[in-house]
Amino acid sequence: MTVNQNISLDSDPVLLEIFWNRLSSLVTEQAVNIIRTSFSPLVREAGDIATALFDRKGRMLAHGQTGTPGHLIPMTRTVLEFLAEFPIDTLKPGDVFITNDPWKTTGHFFDITVASPIFDGGTLIGFAASTAHHADIGGTGFGASANDVFEEGLFIPVCKMYDAGVRNDTLFRLIRANVREPDAVVGDLDAQNAANEAAGRAMRELIHEYAIHDLDAVVEEIFLRSERAARQALREVPNGSYTSVLNLDGYDEPIKVVLTLHIRDEEIEADFTGTSPQIRKGINVCENYTFGYVAFALRCAIGREIPHNFGSLSTFKLNAAPGLIVSCTFPAPVAARHLVGQMIPGLVLQTLAQAWPDKVMADGAGSVWGVTLNGQTREGRPYAAVALIAGGIGARSAKDGLSTMQYPTGTRCVPVEVLELEAPFIYYGKELLTDSGGAGRFRGGLGQRVTLEVVPEGSSCVVNLVCDKTRIGPQGLFDGLPGQIGRTLGRDGVPVHPKQRFVVEDSQYLVLETPGGGGYGDPRQRDRAAVRRDLALGYISEQAAREIYGLVD
Amino acid sequence: MSRKLRLGVDIGGTFTDLVLADVVGVLATEKVLTNPRNPIVAIVEGVERLLAQAGSDASEIVDTVHGTTLVTNAVIEGKGAKTALVTTKGFRDVLEIGREWRYDIYDIDLDPPPILIERGSRYEIEERVLASGEMRVPAEAPAIEQLARTLPADLEALAVCFLHSYVNPANERKVRDQLQELRPGLAISISSDVAPEIREVERMSTTIVNAYVQPLVRPYLSQLREGLSGAGVEGNLYVFLSNGGVVTAEQASDYPVRIVESGPAAGVTGAAMLSRHIDEEHVVALDMGGTTAKICFIDHGQPTISRDFEVARAYRFKPGSGIPLKVASVELLEIGAGGGSIAGLSEMGLLRVGPASAGANPGPVSYGLGGTEPTVTDADLVLGYLNPDYFLGGRMKLDLDGATSAIGRVLGASFEGNAVRAAWGIHRVVNENMANALRVHAAERGVDTARYALLASGGASGLHACRVAEAVRVDRVICPRGASVFSANGMLMAPLTFDFVRTRKFALDTIDWDQCRRLYDDMKAQAVELMEKSRIKAENIEFKASCDMRIVGQGYEIEVPFSLSAMGPDTVDTLSEGYQEIYLRLYGRMTSGLGVEVLNWRLTASGPRPDSSVAFRRAAQTTGEGKTRLAYFPETGQVETPVLARPQLALGTVVPGPAIFEEPDTTVIVPPNWTAQIDQDGNLIIDRKREARQS
Hints:
The complex is a heterodimer. Chain A has two domains: 9-228, no CATH class; 361-553, no CATH class. Helices cover 29% and strands 22% of the residues of chain A. Chain A contains 13 helices and 19 strands. Chain A has a seven-stranded antiparallel sheet, with helices on both faces. A four-stranded mixed sheet of chain A has the order 8-9-10-11. In chain A, helix 1 (13-37) runs antiparallel to helix 5 (182-209) and helix 4 crosses helix 5. The N and C termini of chain A lie far apart (69 Å). In chain A, 62% of the residues are buried. By secondary structure, chain B is α+β, with helices and mostly antiparallel strands. In chain B, strands 13, 14, 15, 20, 23, 24, 31, 34 and 35 form a nine-stranded mixed sheet that branches. In chain B, strand 9 (157-161), helix 5 (170-182) and strand 10 form a beta-alpha-beta unit. In chain B, helix 10 (376-382) packs across helix 11 and helix 12 crosses helix 13. Chain B starts with a strand and ends in a 7-residue tail after the last strand.
């Protein structure tokens, strides 16, 4: 469609909307293509991926409408990190950058970011990038057991995957030699690169179609409007400083995350002063990942329709001194950083509740539990399977919490039948857990009990458990009770370490009970019909109905 | 003289559409108001009017094809039968736990997808089959007897879904057979019959929907038969399927879940037939109604079929918010763009249209029924595209002043008080929304929209089609005649069709062809038996085989066709090549060095295509009165634009845009840079002027 030339794109609410939508849909396309062709189980079944477009200065303009927030927002900074290493004036068409530096991208080696500059003629117009959770990266696997980052596998510093179109064969040989599934990893890197190229091509076409001569002006207008909208939304939240504390299992010793939200007119600062220091096991979080989940949670509560980009994100500030568990320093181990990082949204919303009680929800199970299995069949075929197991989400101000739902990630569980077909799992049950949801006027979502056995049949396999909130359950809000803690048990109820990595020779029986979400409001004020319904369906026990909810008849 | 007539009846939410046709083409069409409480009364009334119009006798009707929203509505409104579930011990909550996925990552207020069977009505039984098909725990008779005693006395339907029953259905069959004896009145659906493929959540919910609606569908169809019989219509009764085929009423009663998408699928079949009739190889059908627009790609006269479908979405346009169904259905992309879509400014100060809709009530401001938010219809009115005195053929008067002032109130500040410019903005943004969806959908399928023609059916399509076409580089728009009964017409063209599937995983190089041949022999035998019940001989059945293939370990399968007659070790090459070709088209790359495996084996059996035609008899030509009205186009500004009707056009007359075609049930806008002409059936063919083309 030809553009009406007497209207300039940057000030026209119609053309800008159209251009904006097109950008957004083309990055979504980019993501869809990677997901559909990925060899990594976490990408293809769980959608653990992010894609984005950047302006020519490396500032994030739009991201795909799918994937995980933990990737999306940290990626905002990745292109800037590439540019710090390779200045803009040295870039050539056909350059492709790559890194999995946890401190520069998304916080652990499994996530590899691939980015390419987009040229139109000889002019740099922007960047396309994607981050995907790969099938393997060497090291100890997807668990928390490493003592430093060197044990966690291959570190790919910021470097070129292609230089002016020439493939960096040394790099690919190095990667192949260091990962357990070289074909899958290289295949996915190629997919990321192809998707970036397609997005770049589409962006070029878009600019031609709309005959945009001054892309900078359009970009600045998008940033300006996003920032203005974000500031406007923040104005509605009462000023003040609000603090709350989150207690987590840690690895062997409990840890705490302390958050103070300073809300000043049009800005929010997330201050983690008082939080536990980093530890010697792989649940440390890099600052960029922490920032990602702070920004994600704030968007859930404030200005949900405002897209994340360089403009809107400028209203959020992070204050976390180096060396905390949420802002760890090299070479802290980080492989299972999501265990702590994905707890942050619950904490943010719990804290925000003091300022904005109606727009939040109580804390929930947070980071999704995982059982990873790596091994080989008797025929020698390698397999890698991840069973994700969700707990309950916290209750909302006017609705019960969602049961067995993954939050904050946008991932999903793999069907039992698929897991059993792909890997030596046998499931004995997958059931909702009575009384696991924190009682309240609105009840927290229920956790689940998964009973399974790993039976490698004649060959051994490695199991990694990543589970949390087994010491203190997710907290309730406004007199709502906490959700039930999680439990990890073996046969006959023998406790199993929730973050263990072990080799299975014959069989391993596991009972995994995920935590329930916290309740919202006084349980005695819960609608009686809702209490009776919960009782009839077995969501709560008779004892809870009587003693906690005060049901008399 | 007795003619062989065929009757199409499509029940929609507002209207019931009827079409009567013979082998030459359409004889008569009729539209009556749907009677939600007793739909059959309206059908009978419609049939009588139709016959009178055509001067035909009821006894001449040999086939009736019926499409209905009964199943969808029952599920959406929760008005199905009292249904329970029986599943493997330990797994009754699988249905509720689902895929643990939030369909909107930012919305903390969202509701979980609906579930039809609450926890108290989900039963478990000791049984277990492993992924290999190995029987670990057989279902034992005493346990089944115990179950029969536990099920409530007033239970009407039962869904049975056990883990891995798609590979070994023995336990499901045993439970069904024994329960059927103990509880003869119970309608039992088993998952290995209804949807025998891997992934327990989806298979379970498909089986449940089937059980849930079965006790409604069976009596409904027999009442329909009686109603028709009372009106003198005997002969075969067929029901239209979600996949574009038909089955007999008896078979529809056994597998009612397969008729969920009956109505919309009929529209697409109509579009597919028309595309064949007018020799358009690649067509994208656009059906823009009051609340949504639906899009479907049709290649070589065949609509795209999807194996995943959702019903009763909590949020209409959010995949994942509904009940997942493993049934073949025409792949329709539905987006929130319709005449009732509401326009406003976003938080970022940009013009946003939809997906919120004023629907039909209160509807657009111009309906004068209490709507206050400006909508797409209001914008179309302000632009001069709609005639305020001739909406629905003049049955409803539109309030132009109301529409103008509402647009001014909401958007005036952003458009210097110019309501016409604001209206153009609304018109353009909604077009772009449709174009965007179309583009993403095309990219997912690896096709280039520029090769397509746009077929515009449905109420508002004609107003927007050419502009959507411009935005996706399409040069031809077709506005079919009889758009208002398009679905009913489509139903008459569909052959008898059955779909079968079996899950057996093999690496491509280790396929056990003997086992596969047995799978196919079994499916074919089932097909032949079903076809013979409809008096279709085995030799007249067309079989199409395909399988779902994927790179080892990938989560998405690609359906690859192969020849059944040549099935054997040589098929490996066919499959491998077919897979590579489709994969390359979809993703633009091929990865070598990784094995390919087959997961599901499919068979589609079709009977002969009915002897029908979409052709309309040519209407008598009339003379125009030379009417015009003021309409806005950005290329020209506001201009006096000719207002025409199709019968005014002689064959071969070319009408240059801008022009407006106005008919009781539809209005078509021909913008500048486009020309319109009529074909012999009365379809409007609108082409972009050569000099305005981009490709």
